[in-house]
Amino acid sequence: MDSLPTKVATHDYQIKGLDKRIESVEIDNKTLTRLTTLLEEQMKNSNQKDDKHSKVLEKINDNLTNLNSRFELVEKRVGYLEKKRNEALIDLGQLGKTIIFKVIPTVIAALLVAWLVYTLGWK
C-alpha cells in the first residue's frame, strides 16, 4: 500500500482542488444572486414602464376619440354650409327665364302704357 506521506500528499492535493472548486461555486453563487437581483429590478422597472405606456396609450386613445367626434361635427357643419351655399347660388338659367318671361314683358307693358298715355294725352 501507499505510505502515509503519499496519502497525505494525495489528500492535500485533492483538498486544494476541492478548495478551488468551492471558490468557483461561491463566485458563481454570488454572480447568480446579483443576476437575480438585477432581473428583479429590471422586471420592476419594466412593469413601471408598462404602466406608463398604458397611461400614454389611454391618453392617445382619448385624444383620438375626441378628434373623431370633432371631425364628425365638422363634417356636419361643412355639409350644412355646402347646402346653404348651394341654396344661395344664382341659377343663371332660372334668372334668364325670369328676365325673359317676367321683367321684359313688364317693361314692354309699362312702355306701352306710357306711350298710350302720351299719345292720347291723358294726364
Task: Describe the SSE topology.
Elements: H1 4-88, H2 92-120
Detailed description of the structure:
This protein has 123 residues and is mainly alpha-helical. The chain folds into two domains: 4-89; 91-123. Helices cover 93% and strands 0% of the residues. The protein is rod-shaped, with a radius of gyration of 52 Å. The mean pLDDT is 88.
Short structural description:
The protein has 123 residues and is mostly helical. 93% of the residues lie in helices and 0% in strands.
User: What coarse outline follows from CA principal-axis ratios?
Assistant: rod-shaped
Poorly predicted parts:
none
Q: How far do the termini sit from each other?
A: 167 Å
What is the overall pLDDT average? 88
Number of strands: 0
- Give the class from helix and strand content and strand pairing: mainly alpha
Main sheet makeup: none
Percentage of residues in DSSP E strands: under 5%
How many helical elements? 2
Indicate the radius of gyration in whole angstroms: 52 Å
Element pattern in H and E: HH
Count of structural domains: 2
Instruction: State the share of residues found in helices, binned by percent.
Output: over 70%
Quaternary state of the chains: single chain
